[in-house]
Every structure is written in structure tokens, then in C-alpha cells.
Design goal:
The structure is a single chain. This protein is α+β, with helices and mostly antiparallel strands. It contains six helices and nine strands. It is elongated.
Length: about 200
């Protein structure tokens, strides 16, 4: 161990521990049958530092974490997933919802898609369709599933070669792969809540 490494180790031991990687690092090390000494040598840090990190007594610098992840062949997404889950509640105030329009049809976002959650990615929004108008997106079909409920008005859901009439309070779900669109058959604005998975409309790059 060089003096510069010792200084680096000492600096890290003084840091607070905002993230807890220790359990995962230790479990992976033990699963691979590596000793503390081996991991420390391969990562270029002291054995005592690795021990402190595993016990969550110190938060490693990013270069140290990258070195340990490389030695243990750990995906960084796996290490940071617990941090992402510290804020699981997504609150969108009524006046802060994203909005978009396709022709004369308005969409108001109720839930933002989570770009980090590929497995459970979905979006939810309010659809407002003027009297005797229709939606357009989906008329040729796309991947995923949809679920909707009519909040106000009445509509025809055109799905493949079938037409399903829906009134206030009715709900529907279907594979989005079939061509589909909503038609407002009433004389007033139609309002519906729609959920789509995976997210299609409000996806952010």
C-alpha cells in the first residue's frame, strides 16, 4: 500500500455514508469465494477500507466503487437500485401536468413513465375528445396493453373489426397490437382516463 493510497483511504473513512452498497458487495464477494485481501489487491485499495465499505461504515469514492464493481463483476444498476427506490411516490400537482394535443384531441399526463423501470413502465393520462371527433394514435396498432375508463360522455371503441359502445363509468382493456381508436359519439366533450404499458405518448428521451 502506497502513502497516496493510505491518504485516499483516510479521506474516505471521514465521509458520511449516504448510500449503502455494503451488503451487496459482501454478498457478491462471498458468492464468488473472494477474500477481502484479494478484492482489495485487485481494486488497489486497503483491505480495511473494503471491510469498512462492506459494513457501511464508509461511502466509497466513485473511482473506488467502480474498481470494486469491476473486480466483482457487478452491474452498477444493481448497486444503485435501492437509492432509486428511496423516492417511490410520484406526486403531480393538478396545475403541473404535462399536456399535448393531436389534432383536436387533448391529452393530460397523470403519471410520468419511469425511464429506469423497464419492467413496469407505464403511463396514464386524461383524454379529452370533442363531440363527434376521434383519436388517431393507435389506429395502426402498437406494442403493449391499454386500459381505459369513461369519466364523462359516451364513445365507440373501434378495435380491429369490432365496435364497442361505452358509457360513463364503463371500462375496457385490450392488447394494443390491434388497430384501435376512440370515437366520441355524443354531443359534448368526452373525457376518459387511459393507462398504457409500455409508455408510448409521454416518453422522455
Amino acid at each position: 500500500m502506497t502513502p497516496s493510497q493510505n491518504n485516499a483511504d483516510n479521506n474516505e473513512t471521514k465521509k458520511k455514508v449516504p448510500y449503502h452498497f455494503g451488503e451487496k458487495l459482501r454478498q457478491m464477494r462471498e458468492h464468488k469465494g473472494y477474500t477481502l485481501k484479494y478484492v482489495a489487491q485487485m481494486a488497489g485499495v486497503s483491505e480495511s477500507l473494503v471491510s469498512q465499505i462492506e459494513r457501511n461504515h464508509v461511502s466509497p469514492a466513485i473511482d473506488t466503487l467502480l474498481s470494486l464493481a469491476d473486480v466483482l463483476d457487478i452491474n452498477l444498476e444493481f448497486l444503485f437500485e435501492e437509492y432509486r427506490r428511496q423516492h417511490p411516490v410520484q406526486l403531480i400537482r393538478r396545475g403541473e401536468r404535462a399536456k399535448m394535443a393531436e389534432g383536436d384531441v387533448d391529452y393530460e399526463e397523470l403519471s410520468k413513465p419511469d425511464p429506469n423501470d423497464k419492467t413496469n413502465n407505464f403511463e396514464a393520462y386524461i383524454i379529452r375528445i370533442p363531440a363527434h371527433s376521434t383519436t388517431h394514435h393507435g389506429s395502426t396498432g402498437h406494442i403493449g396493453r391499454e386500459l381505459g375508463i369513461i369519466v364523462k360522455g359516451c364513445a365507440n371503441l373501434h378495435y380491429e373489426n369490432q365496435v364497442y359502445t361505452m358509457n360513463e363509468g364503463d371500462s375496457v382493456s385490450f392488447p394494443a397490437s390491434g388497430p384501435h381508436y376512440m370515437e366520441n359519439i355524443g354531443d359534448t366533450e368526452l373525457e376518459a382516463i387511459w393507462i398504457v404499458t409500455p409508455a408510448q405518448r409521454f416518453v422522455r428521451e
